[in-house]
Amino acid sequence: ALRFSSLNTCSGAWSSSSRNGTVDRSFVNAAAQHIELPGNIRNLFISPENKFAFCYIEKNGCTSWTKILANINRPNEKSGLCSTDTYWAANDSQTLHGAAGQKQVFSDPAAIRAVFLRDPFARFVSAFVNKCLKLGHEGHCFDADAPSRGPVFMRDAVEWASAHDLNAGVNVHWLLQNQHCGLRQHFDAYTHVGLIQKNTYASDAMCLLKNANIEQYNECDDQ
Length: 223
Fold this sequence. Notes:
This protein is α/β, with parallel strands linked by helices and 223 residues long. It has a domain at 16-119 and 185-217. It is 34% helix and 11% strand. It has helices at 62-73, 78-82, 89-107, 120-133, 154-163, 183-186, 201-211; strands spanning 16-17, 27-29, 44-47, 52-55, 112-118, 192-196. A six-stranded mixed beta sheet has the order 1-2-6-5-4-3. A hairpin with a 4-residue loop joins strand 3 (44-47) and strand 4 (52-55). 37% of the residues are buried. The mean pLDDT is 89. InterPro entries: Carb_sulfotrans_8-10, Sulfotransferase. Belongs to the sulfotransferase 2 family. GO terms for molecular function: sulfotransferase activity. Pfam families: Sulfotransfer_2 (PF03567). Its main location: Golgi.
């Protein structure tokens, strides 16, 4: 099954722009620079041979993306990997290619280096529902012990967020997006900045894969 639905055309998607305040759509970053990133960025996937890098952020569609990225890491094992946990695809790519591979991708003017963002409130609600209400994920709730004390309400999450600095020291699912992927200091290292929106996310993701010429990895045998 496809992780993202196929399209006949990508015309109009990913038009060029520079960040000007709030990110309100997916765009090709006209201000992108070839910047060498630090070597300690979590979830940064690199593929020098495909001239592609992707940094995934928790609660921003990373489950689907990691399955695709794992296919790129091990193309001959695609069907097996799709049905397993692929969360560590970025770590695996770093092991495969090392610091030299990261430097190559981020200094290549022809490379695509992408990240997807999400409306902060939508991401917060998604984290609450998925990590505080669903069984098996309680350890990632804003307060890991909260579910064991009784019902958890959105009011509790809002009060907790109001009392804590979400820039550091919290579970990654609640950490502000600009603290992921080096975005606070290195936003312009990324050539493509996506925005997850209900009506455009699938098409934006598929068009990104097509633009990067890696759409052949957008398939799994687990569905």
